């Protein structure tokens, strides 16, 4: 009997070791699964207790718990939880009184990153109004479109945007949109300044009855898509979704003791909901930067003792390209949370700035599915396991870039890809994981819905993104379906080509896209390149690198040299206009180069070469 107990004891000791050996991520998988379940349960329980429970209620709980704790740091300005509570209540009274906003209506904010962005948001929440987060870089027709698409009758801005406002003010007045400056004085006739009234109004708590009709399905905010092609769409974020997304920081191990640094624009989901909303959820401190600065980034992190940084797009790459300093590793940053980091930048960032845990996210504002890389696996945007599939139903399906549609079988159903293959990510639309869609034109929402995916009558959200899941369950972002193109019967993922080309020593940035060629099927590869300062373009080196590391069909045949690559507010490359420009040297004033296989180098593009291609006298 003693031997039996000894054997059983030995098995109990060996079990965790065997688990780690054969299932190295099992404990992390279980931890994240149970955290997801708990956070979902907690959110639903709050909503059951109080039907109109929202982000402002989370905030008020923290105000009661630690009123004098710092919530926002903005340069030398410091605001406690109590300060923001008072300011948001004062703003709420002015919005409701002088401005005339009623529960359920929408006010648009056209602001740079500043503390007012946060107390305005909470002030609108306190009176049951939605906030439209308009990109402050848009102008004229695009700005008017943003306001009309979400039905905003109020625009809150500052005199910083005097020229942009006065340009469209006659149209705004005609459409009944009121404009207010959040300042002490107004430089524009007919535009009232509100800041003085806000400062002098009562800071008494706003009665809950003011927003009594709000429900979890009521709109909290509108976040606009980047608009890399066409006009931006207003994605609807309701109170339930906002509460769920705000729990991402807690899911990544952030607590009230952490200090979060954000230089991303607050008109995007990562900065406002993941960042500010996450801090309100856990009760931490939020360091807000007016805009991203490479030279000030690490000094800010040291000054404010930052433990978490938020990133998106190319932010970390910019940091890696800055001149090295002896104190690069002297900081308190432990984690970085965001999306869009490339593998080579990921490795360089860790090598240079120390063992910071990268929590790479995958998701979209309007999406009903997302992933988090909680293991630190370099290059992955998340991990799939049997536990996750219990919470979210999604598929990677075959996609045809020529038709722009999923591939279907003889029964008309979509075809899942095998492990290791690239497929289009779609998420099943259910009551637990709904797709809310966009404000305004219903057709924009309908275009994102796929029907009869796995069986008759089902509905799936079309992410528009191509992903790959390897045999270990790690998820990798490959490309967007609008960016992927087909050449010589092969699919070319632009992000994969960009990863290869960015390692060329004279390239600062590269944006790869496909352009149509008369008389040829599909699109051929082209790359817009920004050179490193002081370095010339080397056609022979570029040719060697491309042919050594890329398959023939993926090698860009045309190179366009630009002083700067156009990007969105979230640092995504804009490809639409580049595709329209094509490769005609008579149209493009930038230096152009052509892949000359006979000379084994990229040669200057001439009108003669262009004509020979168009007239099909030159083989591609």
Automatic annotation (TrEMBL):
EC number: 6.2.1.3
UniProt domain AMP-dependent synthetase/ligase: residue ranges: 62-411
Entry-linked InterPro entries: AMP-bd_C, AMP-bd_C_sf, AMP-binding_CS, AMP-dep_synth/lig_dom, ANL_N_sf
SUPFAM superfamilies linked to this entry: Acetyl-CoA synthetase-like
The UniProt record lists the keyword Ligase: yes
Keywords of the record: Fatty acid metabolism, Ligase, Lipid metabolism
Reactions listed under catalytic activity: a very long-chain fatty acid + ATP + CoA = a very long-chain fatty acyl-CoA + AMP + diphosphate; tetracosanoate + ATP + CoA = tetracosanoyl-CoA + AMP + diphosphate
Sequence ranges assigned to domain AMP-binding enzyme C-terminal in this UniProt record: 496-572
Top-level EC class: ligase
Sequence similarity: Belongs to the ATP-dependent AMP-binding enzyme family.
Name assigned to this protein: long-chain-fatty-acid--CoA ligase
Organism from which the protein derives: Gekko japonicus
Designated gene of the protein: SLC27A5
